[in-house]
Amino acid sequence: MSLASWMQPYEEYIDLSYLAMNPHPNVIPYLQQYPDIIDWEYLSTNPTAIELLKENTNCINWKQICLNPHPEAIEFVKEHYKTYLKRWTEKRRRIPYDLVLSWENLSQNPSAVKFLKKNPVYTYWHCQEPPYEPNQDDYGYESEYLKNLYPDNEINWEFLSANPNGVKLLKKNREKIDWDCLSCNISKKAIKLLKKNPDKINWYWLSQNPSAIELILQHRDMVDWRQLCKNPHPAAVKLLEENYIEIDWSYMSANPSAIYLLEQYAYKIDWRWLCKNPNGGQLLANNIETQYEKLDWQWLSENPCIFME
Predict the structure, then answer these.
(1) Do 217 and 111 lie in a common domain?
(2) What residue numbers bound the domain in which 287 lies?
(3) 144 found inside a domain
(4) Which residues pair with 3 in a beta bridge?
(5) Are residues 260 and 121 in the same domain?
(6) Looking at residues 163-169, what average pLDDT do you find?
(7) Hey, CA dihedral for 156, 91, 147, 44, is it positive or negative?
(8) 137-153 confidence digits (pLDDT tens)
(9) For the chain, what is the HEC assignment?
(10) Would residue 168 count as lying in a domain?
(11) What does the pLDDT look like over 246-272, one tens digit per residue?
(12) Is a pLDDT exceeding 60 seen at residue 176?
C-alpha cells in the first residue's frame, strides 16, 4: 500500500479522475492495481505516467496528452501529427474525431513550443471524421458534431503568453501578446519584458507570480493582497506576515511556503483549500479525524502528499 498511513482509512473517498493527475511517482503502481478504472483522459496529462502511456497507446486521449510536458509525450504528438498528415496528404483519409490533437492545449505546454513554431496551424484539423450519427445518410444532412465544433487549430496566444517557454515566439509576434496572461508568466524573460512595459502589467495576476517578487516588493501599493496569498515565494509570505490583516486564509491555506504560518494560526486554516497544499500532509494527518467532512476529496486526490515518500 503506497498511500500515506493517515490516508488509508479514507481510501474510499479518493476521486480516481483527479488521482490520475497526481504527480507523485507512487500513483502509478497504485493505479496499476485497478487497471479497469483508470481515467485515461486525465492520466494522459500526467508526466509521471509516461511509461504506462507507452504501454497503452490505444488508451491515450490525444487532446489531453497535448498538455503533458514530458518530452516523450511531445514525441508521441509529433509522430501522431506526421502519421495523420501523411494519410490525409497521400490518401485523403480523414482523421477520426477522437484522435484529433488540441492546439489550445499545446499552447499551454512548455515542452510544445518548438513544435508550435514549426506548426502554428493544425493543417488538417478541418478534415475530421465525425462520430456516427443516425441520420448522417439523409439528403442534406449536416453533422451536429461539425456544426458545433469549437475552433482549435491555431496557436492560442492567450495561453502561449503564460507559457514560460513561449516568450521568444511572443517577442516575434508582439501584437499578439496577452499582457494579462504574460503577467502570470514565471519566465525571467517574461518578467524582463514586463519591466520594459510597466504600463501593461496586470497587477492582479502579477501578484501571484513568484518570479515577479522584485517588482512586487518595489510596488507594494499596486499589490493585490488576495492574489499575493497564492504566491509561493518566501518573500511574498513574509510580506503577508507583516500585513496580517490582508491575508486571505483560504488562498493562504493552499500556499506551500506558508506552512509555518498555518501551524501558528491553525484556527484560521481553510481545510478545503489546504487539500491543494503539497506541503500540507502533516497538518492533514494531525487533523483528518476531526476535519475530514471539510476536505475537498477531488483536490486531495490530486495532491502528492497523500502518498508515502
Answers:
(1) yes
(2) 1-22+248-309
(3) yes
(4) 307
(5) no
(6) 98
(7) negative
(8) 667 667 777 777 778 99
(9) CCECCCCHHHHHHCCHHHHCCCCCCCHHHHHHCCHHHCCHHHHCCCHHHHHHHHHCHHHCCCCHHHHCCCHHHHHHHHHHHHHHHHHHHHHCCCEEHHHCCCHHHHHHCHHHHHHHHHCCECCCCCCEECCCCCCCCCCCCCCHHHHCCCCCCECCHHHHHCCCCCHHHHHCCHHHCCHHHHCCCCCHHHHHHHHHCHHHCCHHHHCCCHHHHHHHHHCHHHCCHHHHCCCCCHHHHHHHHHCHHHCCHHHHHCCCCCHHHHHHCHHHCCHHHHCCCCCCHHHHHHHHHHHHHHCCHHHHHCCHHHECC
(10) yes
(11) 999 999 999 999 999 999 999 999 999
(12) yes
- Tell the residue number behind the cell numbers 486571505, with chain if given: 248
C-alpha cell at 279: 506541503
**Residues with Cβ within 8 Å of residue 174, at least 6 apart in sequence:** none
Tell me the whole-structure pTM to 2 decimals: 0.94
